[in-house]
Amino acid sequence: MTICPLCKNIIYCKGLCELHYGRYKRWGDPYYNNNDWLKNNRRICSIDNCNNIHQSLGLCKSHYDKQRHKNNPEYDKKRSKIYRKNNLNKCKETQRKYYRNNLKKYKDNNKKWRMNNPEKLLENSKRYLKKLGKLFDMSSNEYRYTLQNWSKTIRKLDNNMCKNCDSIKNLNAHHIMPKNKFPELSLDLDNGVILCKKCHEQTHGFEIY
User: Fold this and answer.
1) Alpha helices, DSSP H only, in 117-172?
2) Domain containing 33: what range?
């Protein structure tokens, strides 16, 4: 088995591999590299103060598109911020509708992901607690322990009873103002109430545990 003298590939024709023989056949030089030529002889947009790469008619892509759609008012409309914002809002609405229609599917996938990725779940919760703890100059562990003490205090204040249905089983401390939106009120005793598991899930609108 013979090998190309310019590289370690197998010979294809005339003592050269397929790559170097192709260069020799097209350019007359097996060492010729088209990419190097493009780098050294790359054209730039002819518009002043524009250093973008040339695409067509001496212009870069953005200036070429503007020139091409010069007499098309619809093109400028589509590029406008208002049009893009409205489009984005429409996309978000369709995503919400799809989520509502496939809620069970999302829940099942979420449960599977939580079961299969406990280490990622732990990392995310640590990151979240660290972010909230920064407001109180605490580490993630310190904030977690203070949050546990906060929930115990709320239980004492509400006599270990659900405020909605007077149940004594499966009690959870619930933030009236959610802590992801109002983190500064997360340890405020006036911002807590005791709810049973069922009532807690109903207030949030999804299964928590």
Assistant:
1) 118-133, 140-157
2) 1-39
124 is a domain residue: yes
> How confident is the model over 148-163, as pLDDT tens digits?
888 888 888 888 888 8
Rg (CA), the chain: 32
The first and second tokens of residue 110, run together, are 């979420």
H-helix or E-strand spanning residue 61: helix 61-68
Pick the closest to residue 79 from 89, 91, 90, 65 (CA basis). 65
In the chain, % helix, strand, coil (3-state, to 5) comes to 55, 10, 35
Please check whether residue 71 lies inside any domain of the structure.
Answer: no
How many Å apart are CA 91 and CA 141, to the nearest integer? 39
Instruction: Decide if 28 is inside a domain.
Output: yes
The tens digit of pLDDT for each residue in 116-130 reads 888 888 888 888 888
Q: How many domains does the chain have?
A: 2
Task: Evaluate if pTM is beyond 0.90.
Answer: no
